[in-house]
Amino acid sequence: LFDTHYQNEDELVKRPPIITVMGHVDHGKTSLLDAIRHTNVISGEAGGITQHIGAYTIMIKDEKITFIDTPGHEAFTAMRSRGASVTDIAVLVVAADDGVMPQTVEAINHAKDAGVPIIVAVNKIDKPGANPDKVKQELTEYGLVSEDWGGDTICVNISAKKREGIEELLEMILLVAEVEDLKAHPTKKAIGTVIEARLDKQKGTVATLLVKSGVLHDGDIVVCNDVFGKVRAMMDDKGNKVKVAGPSTAIEILGFNEVPGAGEKFFVAENERDGRKYAERRKAIMKENALKKSGPVSLDDLFNQISEGELKELKLIVKADVRGSLEALSQSLEKLNDNDEGVRVSVIHGGVGAIAESDVALAAASNALIIAFNVRPDANAKAMAMKEEVEIRSYNVIYHVMEEIEKALKGLLDPEFKEVVVGNAEVRETFKVPNIGLVAGSYVTDGTINRNDKIRVIRDGVVIFESEIASLKRFKDDAKEVQAGYECGIGVENFNDIKVGDTFETFKMEEIERE
Ligand code: GDP
Fold first, then answer.
1. Could you give phi then psi for residue 499, rounded to 5 degrees?
2. Quick one: DSSP state of residue 123?
3. What's the confidence (pLDDT) of residue 285?
4. With a 6 A CB cut-off, is 28 part of the ligand 1 pocket?
5. What is the residue range of the signal peptide feature (predicted)?
6. Which residue's alpha carbon is nearest to atom 11 within ligand 1?
């Protein structure tokens, strides 16, 4: 259905590009989106100030450009994990006084994995400490070589604050869009993506849709996976009521029977009966899939896909405690590409520090496995990994990572022992106890702390020590085990540097049984 739009090439027309602005926090993404909106107001287009509806369109040189109004790669990747690639071009904002930062690298990797071209906006050039050349130099490390240095990445110097360089940036966007040759069908029933959706007490379901191809009309029956409805009202990004919306325009609509998911695709059904039938069938299928556990990313699953020849590329996200380990690991993993199995190994993203939600989102979107080297997920990332069924594999020896991945490539699946995390606790107080050393007054948050299991100390998501449990007490008594929800005193063998706020992870080795 979604492909039929593009079948008759001679019927297609050019459509405006859809842009997402990405970059490190505080580098000026929001300011840039504001500046662009403002540019449009100055140019005197009817309607005036834009409303926040999730995306807006501007005119420059008689051409249109649509911007997704939620900056950052988190939203970009969350949408992609639902199957929709909305963005045609990514604008990467890098502050000229700060340079390439961790989220800059994340944004580059997210855009690259999605196959989306990147235009760099070197921002804050008005600042005294601005050094655009240093930014360009740093970007070369990530494969983005500026055009004036012989590469093919367009870099534009801007000041979002002083509104300088904005027009030039917009012109560059049009230039890249031209090359991308973006097309849509001008008349068919609309297809597109949900950008945002919420429940409003008065209005009911409010959804922002981005039409990708075709035309959406007031009164159409829209279907979005398991929800549907008749469009009751349509509002454009200037707050005007409209009756039709063509390719690459965002509109806010009322009428869905339930709140659709951001990033889901929508289409227009022939009539209400068809729309309802489709949505109900999807609902039934989804219920069935939920029981079957759909779409997990685990090493076992990837193993199976490789051995059945279904998977030609093993994608990995590597997070490590220090840069040295990250580099050593990434290099060793890339070397595995010289294998006889014909399976590529790609490290699609690497970083230092705890595993964050955006890492999990990227893994879910791109069917990648997360390799955690001496680091752990933060609470949000952990919850998301459970929900999205993304496996995070923890290691503390590079050799073990290599050994397992190498085996995966060969379709061998035989680590006989696997590490199992048994419990987690957080340190709330510390005591110096004569003859014993430091004891951590701890609260067990998950599972069970067993006296005989091994223990790791984690600080800010990074594993800082691993050894045995030296003592486990409930009040004054020795305990064999302490369950989640209870407090206990924990001593760690050979480690007296425990601090309030540290967390413990206890684990044991378990024999793996396979079918
Ligand atoms: P975001 O987190 O990437 O969305 O960044 P913001 O747009 O919120 O900007 C972060 C800070 O940088 C704000 O205080 C802005 O006023 C400031 N800022 C943004 N662009 C510029 C610029 O071009 N020049 C200067 N001097 N400051 C800027």
1. -125, 155
2. E
3. 79
4. yes
5. none
6. 26
pTM given for the model: 0.70
Cα–Cα separations (whole angstroms), residue 474 to 89, 143, 457: 58, 55, 20
Cβ atoms within 10 Å of 312's Cβ, excluding its own: 11
Q: What is the pLDDT of residue 293?
A: 41
- 454 ligand 1 Cβ < 6 A: no
- What's the gap between Cα 243 and its chain centre? 34
CB of 159 closer than 6 A to ligand 1?
Answer: yes
CB of 197 closer than 8 Å to CB of 208? yes
Determine the Cα–Cα distance for residues 125 and 95; give it in Å rounded to an integer: 8
Is the ipTM of this structure higher than 0.95? yes
**Does the annotation flag 496 for ligand binding?**
no
Rg (alpha carbons) of the chain, rounded to whole number: 26
Q: Which helix or strand (DSSP H or E) is residue 419 part of?
A: strand 417-433
Question: What is the Å distance from ligand 1's center to 28 Cα?
Answer: 4
E strands, 434-461, are: 437-450, 454-459
Picking from 474, 475, 455, the residue whose alpha carbon sits closest to that of residue 463 is 455
What is the Cα–Cα distance from 491 to 478, expressed in whole angstroms?
11
User: Using a 6 Å cutoff on CB, does residue 30 contact ligand 1?
Assistant: yes
- State whether residue 173 is helix, strand or coil: helix
324: Cα separation from own chain's centroid: 25
CB 27 less than 6 A from any atom of ligand 1: yes
What pLDDT does residue 49 have?
57
pLDDT of residue 297: 63
In whole angstroms, what is the distance from residue 187 CA to residue 502 CA?
Answer: 60
Parallel, antiparallel or unpaired: strands 417-433 and 437-450: antiparallel
CA distances from 11 to 79, 156, 212, 407 (A): 29, 35, 15, 50
Q: Are 371 and 398 in contact (CB under 8 A)?
A: no
Rounded to the nearest whole angstrom, what is the distance from the C-alpha of residue 31 to the centroid of ligand 1?
6
Question: Is residue 361 within 8 Å of 384, Cβ to Cβ?
Answer: yes
Instruction: Please give the pLDDT value at position 1.
Output: 65
Is 153 annotated for ligand binding?
Answer: no
Rounded to the nearest angstrom, the gap between the alpha carbon of residue 483 and the centroid of all alpha carbons in its chain is: 34
Please list, in sequence order, all residues whose beta carbon lies within 8 angstroms of the beta carbon of residue 316, skipping any fewer than 6 positions away.
333, 345, 346, 347, 348, 368, 369, 370, 371, 405
Mean pLDDT by groups of 10 residues along the chain of 515 residues: 77 94 92 84 49 84 89 73 79 95 89 92 95 95 92 95 94 95 92 90 92 95 94 91 94 93 88 92 75 55 69 86 89 81 83 90 87 91 86 87 82 64 94 87 94 93 92 92 94 93 91 58
**Which pLDDT belongs to residue 425?**
96
* Cα 93 to Cα 161: distance, rounded to the nearest angstrom: 13
Residues with Cβ within 8 Å of 32's Cβ and at least 6 positions away in sequence, in order, are 21, 91, 93, 121, 123, 158, 160, 166
Non-local CB neighbours of 388 within 8 Å, separated by 6+ positions: 81, 297, 360, 361, 363, 364
